[in-house]
From TrEMBL:
GO terms for biological process: isoprenoid biosynthetic process. Keywords: Magnesium, Metal-binding, Transferase. This is Polyprenyl synthetase family protein. GO terms for molecular function: metal ion binding; prenyltransferase activity. The lineage of its organism: Bacteria, Pseudomonadati, Campylobacterota, Epsilonproteobacteria, Campylobacterales. It holds the Pfam family polyprenyl_synt. It comes from Sulfurimonas aquatica.
Length: 295
């Protein structure tokens, strides 16, 4: 990972603008899940740290834009760039980062460049769907999972696929692994938004629903509520609801085991991913750590 950080520092330096260097150094790097995945799959290849840095730049850029779109004041436990420097800076820094990533990507094999760049179109589509879907109470599970796939899983899938191409490993199996890892990761994130507290999350709890996002536990809950209760749930959607209303929703989720049901889907996706790469202990280990986050 040290090599990835060095590549990131080198690429940022090449942009040759103090403002960018300063703002980038203020960002919290986060878990670097995508970079770690690339190193686990293709670590022996000399270009793996560069590929990992490229993917982290794209991911970082998408979050800079996402925080403007979501009006988020914090990111990874620290103030977001839009909070401290304004939305214009956040958007432009994102533009600088992802265009630099694409400039570096052209040096790679055409198929690798295609896999990564097309996933960015998919994630942008997914983000648009997320915003559109938050305008009303979505009860369509398939539509929700498709949006999650595009918004979160495609870049992870592309990272796994591209690194498999780099070292001639089984592309299909690694792609399936990346896709399912991404999906179950996001489902668990959605669960933690409900079950964790503000201190652990670095943002208010149950914020997804306040932002209009009907994640799986809400979709499953709506399916089992009676008409009156369903009305009550829908009337809380996309609003700053009271603590007692939050408690009512949580109690209904407990009674109807909708968190458990969501977790079961995450577990099932993770199991499929595990089967795809069962001979690779390290990749299996990533899945296990991810699933354990929810305890
Ligand atoms: C976080 O979702 C957002 C994403 C995973 C993708 C955002 C994608 C774009 C803004 C498209 C633009 C792409 C580039 C490269 C500039 P979230 O809001 O559900 O999660 P959060 O709680 O981490 O904010
Ligand atoms: Mg967001």
């Amino acid at each position: 990972m040290q090599r990835v950080e060095e590549e990131l520092t080198r690429l940022i330096k090449e942009i040759d603008y103090d403002e960018v260097t300063k703002l980038f150094s203020m960002l919290s790097g986060g878990k670097r899940l995508r970079a770690k995945l690339i190193l686990k799959i293709a670590g022996e290849h000399k270009d793996a740290p560069l590929l990992a840095a490229i993917v982290e730049l794209i991911h970082g850029a998408s979050l800079l834009h996402d925080d403007v779109i979501d009006d988020a004041m914090t990111r990874r436990g620290v103030a977001s760039v839009n909070a401290t420097e304004g939305s214009k800076m956040s958007i432009m820094l994102g533009d600088v980062l992802y265009s630099k990533a694409f400039t570096e990507l052209v040096a790679f094999d055409k198929e690798i460049a295609r896999v990564i760049s097309s996933s960015v179109t998919a994630l942008s589509k997914g983000e648009m769907m997320d915003v559109k879907m938050a305008e009303s109470f979505n009860t369509d599970e398939e539509k929700y999972l498709n949006m999650l796939y595009l918004k979160t899983a495609t870049l992870i899938e592309a990272a796994a696929k591209a690194s498999a191409i780099l070292v001639d490993k089984d592309v299909q199996k690694h792609a399936l692994y990346g896709k399912n890892l991404g999906l179950s990761f996001q489902i668990i994130d959605d669960i933690l938004d409900i079950t964790s507290d503000e201190k652990t999350l670095g943002k208010p709890a149950m914020n997804d629903f306040v932002e209009g996002k009907c994640t799986l536990p809400y979709i499953y809950l709506d399916k089992v509520l009676n008409r009156e209760e369903s009305q009550r749930l829908k009337s809380s959607h996309a609003k700053n609801i009271s603590a007692s209303e939050m408690e009512w929703i949580k109690t209904k989720m407990q009674e109807n085991k909708t968190i458990e049901k969501s977790f079961e889907l995450a577990q099932q996706l993770s199991n499929e991913a595990q089967v795809a790469v069962s001979d690779d202990k390290e990749l299996v280990g990533i899945l296990e750590t991810m699933i354990k986050r929810s305890y």
